Amino acid sequence: MLRASCEANDIAADFSVVVDPKRSCDVRHYDLLIEFADALLARDETQLGKAREALRIGAGDAGVEKAAAVVGNFQMMNRALDTIGATFGKKLPTRVRAMAEEFGIEPPPHWPAAY
Amino acid sequence: MHSSIARVIAAEWDRLGSPGTWWTGTQRTEIGRQARRARDGEPVDDSELPDLVIEAIRKIAVDAHTIDQAWIQRCHERGLEPLPMVELLAVIAKLVAIDTFLEGTGEQERPLPESQKGEPSRAIVEGATINGGWLPTKGTAGAPVCFSAVAAEEQAWHELHSVLYLSTEEMRDLDVNKDGLHRSQIELLAARTSHYNDCFY
Q: Is the pTM value of this prediction over 0.90?
């Protein structure tokens, strides 16, 4: 969905920023968002306080609240999908497989590739 | 806090302490307590829940990325049936979502609710079967149907997912701005969270 939303809005995005925060992309405040997410997921209070304040300056109170909500939502979805053994279709789409290879991510073994 | 999120969290807290479909209110609250202990790195303490259930709680709460079909099958063989397991998963996943949200906004962790007396409904969802995944779903195992084998949990998921992320209608809009963030920013957070959790999806 990140790729779809960026392509639909002509946002030049290097999606490797998702696995390597040292990279950059044109998503607004991408660095602040990643720092916030990482600190929240690591449950590092000190880092989280700094990241929250930096994001607040960039995206406002509403942006901080929405960022926390989205991270929370995907904490739920990750656990749900990993536990039910989701597949999103019988075959892993070729495009998704290619992206996984590009980023060095291993697809679930029970989800066979389309080729 | 946005009023719609506050309303959904309050409703979820009522649900958490109330009898569910396969677990009592006391058991649901205890599932939540044990999930929090696992995430806090605390050891198992005295609990009325069987060891197998505690084991499952800890795995889902902190190690969901290591779950595979064989582990799910072993849980079934040792007595944790598929439908109670779906509800167990839903209770943990929703609690982690809310705890993470509150932590992110700098609010205090909410004390678990008082449990309410009563028996689980044991309501069966017609058409929920193993459908491409490891636990029953109504339709191919994926995000929109993740808790669909337990109707009350599916409804709760829809409410929570809509306010924390996007509603079904908003999800069709790749240019949507919601509560201060653009869709591309929302999806970057989603992708980074999934990467952190080692979740391929």
A: yes
CB of B188 less than 8 A from some CB of A:
yes
Span B160-181, average pLDDT: 92
**Which pair of structure tokens corresponds to residue A49?**
């306080």
Q: Is the ipTM of this complex over 0.90?
A: yes
Measured CA to CA in angstroms, residue B42 lies from A59, B31, B37, B158, B191 at distances of 35, 14, 5, 31, 28
Query: Rounded distance, CA B77 to CA B73, Å?
Result: 6
Compare CB distances from A41 to B5, B188, B196 and report the shortest one's residue: B196
Q: Are B97 and B164 in contact (CB under 8 A)?
A: yes
| Six-digit token string for B94 | 């929703």
Rg over alpha carbons for chain B, rounded to the nearest Å, is 17
**A22 neighbors A34 (Cβ within 8 angstroms):** no
Q: What residues contact residue A97 under an 8 Å CB cut-off, 6+ apart?
A: A107, A113, A114, A115
Phi and psi torsions of B196, nearest 5° = -60, -40
